[in-house]
Amino acid sequence: MTYLELFLGFLRVGCFAFGGAYGALPLIRDIVLSYGWLTEEQLSAMIAVSESTPGPIMVNLATFVGSQEAGLPGALLATFAVVLPSFLIILLLTAVLKNALKNRYVQALLRGMKPSVIGIVLAMGVWMILKNVFLSLSAPTADWRALVITALSLFLMFGAEPLFRKKPSPIALICTAAICGAILYGI
């Protein structure tokens, strides 16, 4: 039963994860919490680890959860399930890509989905900040270390360009946050 649940759960993620992993995080969250595969804290930690390691976040999360639940076969099955829909869609699109992208209805569909995906990514980012900085949303108590790292990351992302005359790379932001986390939380 575990194998079937892993396959179907991550197949749903793969089928409905339009807009990339950030747009899929609410769906991933819903699925892993509903099956009891991860807790909220474990999910937040895994998102951070998946973001910091090579490869797509969805694949990293699927591989980890599959491995945790059913060992190597579970990891392979969950990874296969999460990439299967994209693989099939890419195969289909390569056959009709030239004509499909020129179609005005397809263009309208893609233009219409873009604001929705942006909203989902933004909502997930705000939720993650609130969840990690304010330990309990019902009785707000702030984790000052998480607040400092969040503020520094936001400053570097949005305020550093005028100072350094270029945008910081995502790798620099991840490394800076990791170093700050190691210093503030103590290794």
Explain this structure.
The protein has helices at about 1-15, 20-35, 40-50, 55-100, 105-135, 145-165, 170-185. It has about 190 residues and is mostly helical. Helix 1 (about 1-15) packs antiparallel against helix 2 and helix 3 crosses helix 4. The mean pLDDT is about 85.
What order do the helices and strands come in, and which of them pair?
Layout lengths: L1 H15 L4 H14 L5 H13 L4 H46 L1 H30 L10 H21 L5 H16 L2
Helix pairs in contact: 1-2, 1-4, 2-5, 3-4, 6-7
Q: Give the overall shape, derived from the CA principal axes.
A: globular
Structural class: mainly alpha
Give the fraction of residues assigned to helices. Answer: over 70%
Query: How many H/I helical runs?
Result: 7
Query: What's the helix-strand series?
Result: HHHHHHH
Stretches where pLDDT is under 50 for at least 5 consecutive residues are none
Beta content: under 5%
Q: Characterize the quaternary organization of these chains.
A: single chain
- CA(first)-CA(last) distance: 39 Å
What's the alpha carbon Rg, rounded to whole Å?
Answer: 19 Å
Mean pLDDT: 85
Q: Give a short account of the largest sheet.
A: none
Q: What's the total count of β strands? A: 0
Quick rundown:
With 187 residues, the protein is mainly α. Helices cover 83% and strands 0% of the residues.
Notable features of this structure?
mainly alpha, 7 helices
